[in-house]
Design a protein that fits this description.
Blueprint: H1 2-20, H2 26-48, H3 51-56, H4 62-94, H5 101-110, H6 112-138, H7 142-158, H8 162-169, H9 173-224, H10 228-265
Helix pairs in contact: 1-9, 1-10, 2-4, 4-5, 4-6, 4-8, 4-10, 6-7, 8-9, 9-10
Length: 271
């Protein structure tokens, strides 16, 4: 019960940080924009090289695997660079400072090599798990797929605090994983309970808001015998999902900083 209580305190502390520093949402926005650009950059040469055709017919070529690995790696670098900047800025606020977006980027730039190293490790593990999972599905081995899913979940839990460790301590990927595991032993209850709670809350908000918008769009369209209200509410639904995803990803990033601060300092930090 104490762990659940502290997880809520950490979640509230994270929300307070977001209230004070709404500009932290810039980091996920920049990450999303860069990810779109990266996807388009890799998609065009992939299509030109007919890699997709080889996947659908004779299986993926060596060039296809190289492109896929590079795509995974660049994606992870973008995500972790943005996450490190977000977590670094949040830690400044949690420890009494007044962070700026520039502060976050400066922290991420100073940890560039550890970020690249961790991205390489994380991308490799993710790619291997994905390959094993796909192979299991093709062979119809449901139990194997389930085991792979469990391994993936365990990996996510163990490495939950890697980004804060990199942002604050500047450790390389292997030492960061070890540090994350050691910190997990002190905060596993708060970490899991808080993550599940935040996910559940945003999930319920998303379902409720989505049903309301869809229902209103369909109802008004029927009432006025026009598709325009449906289109309008469809656009509103997309914007709602985007805003909710932005808020959720930012809050989750701040929450990892709060859990790290609790595990490292032994107390919930309030601003």
């Amino acid at each position: 019960m104490n762990q659940i209580k502290r997880s809520w305190e950490l979640a509230k502390a994270s929300l307070e940080v977001l209230k004070h520093d709404k500009e932290l949402m810039i980091f996920p926005i920049i990450s999303a924009v860069v990810m779109i650009f990266v996807s388009l950059t890799f998609l065009i040469p992939t299509l030109l090289a007919n890699v997709l055709d080889s996947i659908l017919t004779d299986g993926m070529s060596i060039f296809g695997y190289i492109v896929l690995c590079l795509f995974y790696l660049v994606q992870y670098i973008v995500v972790y660079f943005s996450s490190t900047a977000l977590v670094g800025a949040a830690m400044i606020r949690l420890r009494g400072g007044d962070p700026t977006v520039k502060d976050g980027f400066n922290i991420a730039l100073s940890r560039l090599m550890p970020i690249v190293g961790w991205s390489l490790v994380s991308a490799t593990v993710g790619l291997l798990l994905n390959m094993v999972s796909n192979t299991s599905k093709k062979k119809g081995k449901g139990i194997s797929s389930f085991i792979v899913s469990l391994l993936g979940a365990a990996w996510n839990v163990i490495t939950f605090l890697v980004v804060p460790v990199i942002a604050i301590e500047g450790l390389g990927p292997i030492k960061a994983i070890q540090s994350s595991w050691n910190l997990l032993k002190r905060s596993w209850g708060e970490q899991i309970a808080g993550t599940v709670s935040i996910g559940l809350i945003f999930g319920l908000i998303g379902i409720a808001g989505g049903l309301i918008l869809v229902g209103a769009g369909v109802g008004i369209s029927i009432l006025f015998d026009s598709v325009l209200p449906g289109i309008l509410f469809g656009v509103l639904l997309i914007l709602f999902i985007m805003a909710l995803s932005l808020f959720s990803s930012t809050l989750n990033g701040i929450f990892t900083a709060s859990v790290y601060a609790f595990a490292a300092d032994g107390q919930v930090l309030w601003i």
